[in-house]
Structures are given as structure tokens and as C-alpha cells.
Design goal:
With 237 residues, the chain is of the alpha/beta class. The protein is built from eight helices and seven strands. The chain has a single domain, classed as Vaccinia Virus protein VP39 (Rossmann fold, 3-Layer(aba) Sandwich), CATH 3.40.50. A seven-stranded mixed beta sheet has the order 3-2-1-4-5-7-6, sandwiched between helices. Helix 4 links the parallel strand 2 and strand 3. The protein is globular and about 50 Å long. The relative contact order is 0.18.
């Protein structure tokens, strides 16, 4: 993709890894390489920091029920499990993903630390979630899907919710192909990673979304950057 393509608005194009006909073996390779890129770019950092901030409001007497929407390779759930172990916090971890090929990959990584569900997150309403979170998911959604997701999190998460996603900026958009080449990742990860940056949002766009979709909750939502080039939205009650 042209590194100087317009970023005035999010790029409207589908990513290759979302293709239904992608072979399971290739998909597993894509997820593994994406996990490596996430590690190199410190993707778990804002999520774990968010959990630390939730913890400061009190741990409570029962395990935290945490739902990870779009769990992918399960790397974020694995990091959350280690976070809980280190702090002595009991966690009831659940991941949901629309792609049936994700479950087998994540199950190997997690070793039973989380319950994995293939399906639609909306089917999990009313199940007593304390925290709902996602990573690199919202830029895959249509505007209507994002609005519904924000409503779901605000309605269903008793303690807090988090959107961990990318920040649409020129430097990561132009520079990502170099990182991908140096990391020797699958060509799909090279192309999709750059496109993901181009499909993501800026602070003003998130603020507008929150004001329109969650007018009552928006003042209590925090939009923050996390190095390098993550833009996140959190709501802690």
C-alpha cells in the first residue's frame, strides 16, 4: 500500500485475514506472526495498565469475570492470566471470537486458563461480566457494529470496559512495512498490519463516537494514547 495514501479518514477496505476461505494452517501462521508483532509493539501494555487502574478501585471478594471480545491467538488472555497470578487476583477468563479457526490456536497457548467460545459476543449478554475488553477489534467493525459494541460494554460491564486499538497516524502507517519485513512475518500480516493502522481512528473521532453513542457515559470515558501508536478508550466505574 502506498505509504503516502490519504489518512484524512479511515481507509474503507477489508483485511485479508478476515477472509472466510483462508486455510486454517495459514490462519494459524498469521495469528502467530501477529502475536509476535503485538509483543514487539507492546500491545498488552495499555490493557494491563487498565487492569491496574481497575484494581485500585477495589478487588472484591469473588473472581473477576473478564470477557475478551475477538481473542485471536489468545495472547492477551494469556497476559491477563499472568497479571492476575502475579497480583493474587482470581480471574474467570472468557474469550469470544467469530472466527472458528481462532479457538484451536488460542487453546494451545492458554492451556485451559480461559473458556473459549466461537460465536457472537452479543449472545453473552446478561452473564455477569465485571470487565469487557478488546484489542485490535473495533477497526474491523462497521459504524453500526461499533455503536452496538459500545452499548453492549456500557450495559454489561459492571466494573469497567476497554477498547485497545491503533492510532491512525502517518509514521506507523508508513513505517509498519519495515517492521514487518525485519520481523519476517507472513505477507498477509505485512499488508493487513499497515491497513489496520489506516482503518483505525483518531482522538477526535473517538470523542465524537462516544458523544453520539453514549451521551450520558461519554464524560466518564477516557481516551488515551499508549506508546507506540495505540489509542485506547476506557470506562472505569
Amino acid at each position: 500500500m502506498n505509504p503516502f495514501a490519504s489518512l484524512r479518514v479511515p481507509i474503507a477496505r477489508e483485511e485479508e485475514m478476515d477472509a472466510a476461505d483462508l486455510a486454517p494452517e495459514r490462519y494459524a501462521k498469521v495469528l502467530a506472526d501477529l502475536s509476535r508483532i503485538n509483543g514487539l509493539t507492546m500491545a498488552p501494555r495499555p490493557t494491563l495498565g487498565f487492569l491496574d487502574r481497575v484494581r485500585k478501585r477495589g478487588v472484591g471478594e469473588r473472581p473477576w469475570r473478564i470477557l475478551d471480545v475477538g481473542f485471536g491467538a489468545g495472547d492477551m488472555l494469556a497476559r491477563i492470566a499472568r497479571w492476575g497470578d502475579k497480583r493474587g487476583i482470581a480471574l474467570d477468563l472468557v474469550g469470544v471470537d467469530l472466527n472458528r479457526k481462532s479457538e484451536a490456536v488460542a487453546a494451545v497457548r492458554l492451556g485451559g486458563r480461559a473458556r473459549l467460545i466461537t460465536g457472537d459476543y452479543r449472545a453473552l449478554a446478561g452473564q455477569g461480566w465485571d470487565i469487557i475488553l478488546s484489542s485490535l477489534v473495533t477497526h474491523h467493525m462497521t459504524p453500526a457494529q461499533r455503536s452496538e459494541f459500545l452499548h453492549f460494554m456500557e450495559r454489561e460491564a459492571a466494573r469497567a470496559w476497554l477498547v485497545n486499538d491503533l492510532h491512525r497516524q502517518r509514521l506507523p502507517f508508513a513505517g509498519y512495512p519495515l517492521l514487518a519485513a525485519l520481523a519476517w512475518v507472513d505477507p498477509i500480516v505485512r499488508r493487513d498490519g499497515q491497513l489496520s493502522v489506516g482503518r483505525s481512528f483518531r482522538r477526535s473521532e473517538w470523542r465524537t463516537m462516544l458523544d453520539e453513542v453514549l451521551p450520558e457515559a461519554a464524560p466518564g470515558c477516557r481516551i488515551f494514547r499508549s506508546f507506540p501508536y495505540r489509542l485506547c478508550v476506557e470506562r472505569i466505574r
